[in-house]
Automatic annotation (TrEMBL), chain A:
SUPFAM superfamilies: Nucleotide-binding domain (SSF51971)
Keyword check for Zinc-finger: no
Gene3D superfamilies linked: FAD/NAD(P)-binding domain (3.50.50.60), NAD(P)-binding Rossmann-like Domain (3.40.50.720)
All residue ranges annotated as the FAD/NAD(P)-binding domain in the record: 94-250
InterPro entries per record: FAD/NAD-bd_sf, FAD/NAD-binding_dom, Ferredox_Rdtase, Ferredox_Rdtase_adrenod
Catalytic activity, EC: 1.18.1.6
Gene assigned in the entry: LOC118429621
Reaction equations catalysed: 2 reduced [adrenodoxin] + NADP(+) + H(+) = 2 oxidized [adrenodoxin] + NADPH
GO cellular component, one term: mitochondrion
Pathway: Steroid metabolism; cholesterol metabolism
Cofactor requirements of the protein: FAD
Organism: Branchiostoma floridae (Florida lancelet)
GO biological process, one term: steroid biosynthetic process
Protein name listed in UniProt: NADPH:adrenodoxin oxidoreductase, mitochondrial
Protein family (similarity comment): Belongs to the ferredoxin--NADP reductase type 1 family.
From TrEMBL, chain B:
Protein's recorded name: Ferredoxin-2, mitochondrial
PROSITE patterns hit by this protein: 2FE2S_FER_2
Free-text function comment from the UniProt entry: Electron donor, of the core iron-sulfur cluster (ISC) assembly complex, that acts to reduce the persulfide into sulfide during [2Fe-2S] clusters assembly on the scaffolding protein ISCU. The core iron-sulfur cluster (ISC) assembly complex is involved in the de novo synthesis of a [2Fe-2S] cluster, the first step of the mitochondrial iron-sulfur protein biogenesis. This process is initiated by the cysteine desulfurase complex (NFS1:LYRM4:NDUFAB1) that produces persulfide which is delivered on the scaffold protein ISCU in a FXN-dependent manner.
Pfam family, one: Fer2
GO molecular function: 2 iron, 2 sulfur cluster binding; metal ion binding
Entry similarity comment: Belongs to the adrenodoxin/putidaredoxin family.
Biological processes, Gene Ontology terms: P450-containing electron transport chain
Keywords, comma-separated and alphabetical: 2Fe-2S, Iron, Iron-sulfur, Metal-binding
Top-level taxon in the UniProt lineage: Eukaryota
Sequence ranges assigned to domain 2Fe-2S ferredoxin-type in this UniProt record: 47-149
Cofactors that this protein relies on: [2Fe-2S] cluster
Native organism: Branchiostoma floridae (Florida lancelet)
InterPro entries: 2Fe-2S_ferredoxin-like_sf, 2Fe-2S_ferredoxin-type, Adrenodoxin-like, Beta-grasp_dom_sf
Amino acid sequence: MDVKTGYVAGRLAFRGVLCRISGISTAAHCHAVKKHSCETVFKFSQRSLYQTSTPGQHRWFCHNSTPGQHRWFCHTATPSQHRWFCHTSTPGPHVCIVGSGPAGFYTAQHILKNHKTARVDIYEKLPVPFGLVRFGVAPDHPEVKNVINTFTNTASNERCSFLGNVTVGRDVTVAELRQAYDAVIMSYGADADKEFGIPGEDLSGVYSARAFVGWYNGLPQDKHLAPMLDTDTAVVLGQGNVALDVARILLTPLSILKITDITDHAAAALETSQVKTVYIVGRRGPLQTAFTIKELREMTKLPDCRPLLDPADFAGLEDKVKSLQRPRKRLTELLIKTAQTGGATAQEAQRLAQATKEWGLKFLRSPLEILSSEDGSRVSGIRLGVNQLEGSDSSARAVPTGETEVLSCGLVLRSIGYKSEPIDDTVPFDSQKGVIPNEAGRVTGCKGLYCSGWVRRGPTGVILTTMTDGFETGKAVVDDLTTGILQPVGGVRGQEWIQPLLQKKGIQAVTFEDWNKIDSEEMMRGEKVGKPREKILDVKEMLQVAQS
Amino acid sequence: MAAAIRTKFPVLRRFSQVIFASFSSVSSPLRHGDYEYQDPKSEDEIVNITYVQKDGERIPIRGKVGDNVMYLAHRYDIPIEGACEASLACCTCHVYVHDDYSDRIQEATEEEEDMLDMAPFLKESSRLSCQITLSKDLDGIEVTLPQATRNFYVDGHVPEPH
């Protein structure tokens, strides 16, 4: 790097002690920057110097004239008031993403990589980022959370900012965001869940799997769930990966769970849990299960746990299996093998015989009514309708036969899918499908408005499905910026325009550096108790740590 | 001239020190794959590998014994994702291994096969590149990137590559 050119027309470029204080400039063309952006390497060449003549307040600007890479440094020579700010003066477009889960971050990653001057601001209603990677992925699946490293990398890009503790739709409206930003991307996911709408669904002891997951993963709104685990039988309604997750957490020995980042109160509650049997109930058959083989295999290997699969459910499937696609074939083969009672080896047979807990799959059953105990205080069982299948494979339909049966239990977890909700009156929303109507990520009829992730295509799929989706929306945004469909507007833009609105409401946005403080605090607390982290459950406490 | 400036103008020297120091201390996130960033120390260590891109472009790389095929691709900016960082929790590092070499690689574990189930455009030669370590035996190996790493159209529709 050629420092000698930091110096033009024989004049000294800098004077006095150099220090860095980042701040929001009141000048219209400057941006709020993070401290470390000032450490970014810059090239000096063909600069121009500029000096005000106000005594005691000389300001020197250094300006790299390479288009797209202009940087201004403002330096007050007044002792102890030296200020640097680092500013790209070519107004790159301003992009805003609502939601900091995988959809938000992968969309941001794609835009930052493929557009050289765009600035991306990611808004999040909680003080902490990462969405379902933090609050959805099970505590005993830490490797799935490795994507956080990729997201942290994205957030560390100097053109990327994280603004936590800002609820879009309440603290700031989508209309205001669309005024401040050239493109606004909705990536806020799905935080409600589907319901059956059957009698008894609101009894004590009936919870959504979503809330149960939020409870053991430290989602602030679910910390008071206090699920009733004083029953020997639990029923999970639904046969997806979330259903297996909650079943597995109910049955995993505490010795394994308590060294994960599971919340303290969940570990304590599970320690005194009486749940011994978990049934996972689906309305269709074994060929229509929505879970994947990795998660099923984990169930078969649960310590101190025996599978209760009825071989009759798999009668006649051995032949059918041969013609299935590989993923479904391997999954069904594993189900059939697991249903064969006794275990493959003598050792395995002994392990199963000695197990004190059990899990089972029930097929072709739909809940018709949740029954209450005599005193009406909690759930005592479920009346299930027996189904038969019409059609086959993934398009098979469950049709009631009229037959019913009762399954006794003291805990019911409803796991039939998450659900998105509209964020704001001005954003179109398809209530039937529960998504924002769009084409390739562009919101129908709203130029400059985009969507990615679950709110775009519905709440199914793993992190990497969302990755591909995020990249696709990112591409739509980059294309529209490059082809001129979106015309970036100059002047005060982006978070500089939004921050004063937030400040008026007394809202302090949490930066990524602030999140790092929360992150360190959680890891420090975790270390004391032998866990990777002890999550902070209270938003106020998060903000206290962030602002310390 | 640079030296002259630095001695004559101590402030500038300090400034350049600050900039150099901060440049070299730009922190990188948790780095698995450090080993792949080290150059081979001798010819004996070299294992030649060719990555074949989606569009057919062939990229020959001089790897070394012990290199992880996925992290080596990251070093040379070959577009293999690796979302879960080699922990068998995704299928984004999916590649096809050239027939001549598939026998020389350690057979896939059950865990790897489970994750391969999720990969679109699966073939007999499919493997997760994060599970392949280079050895002398694999000198000359070729791996091909698939058309996509995650097909999210449940009805089998194939999106246009982009």
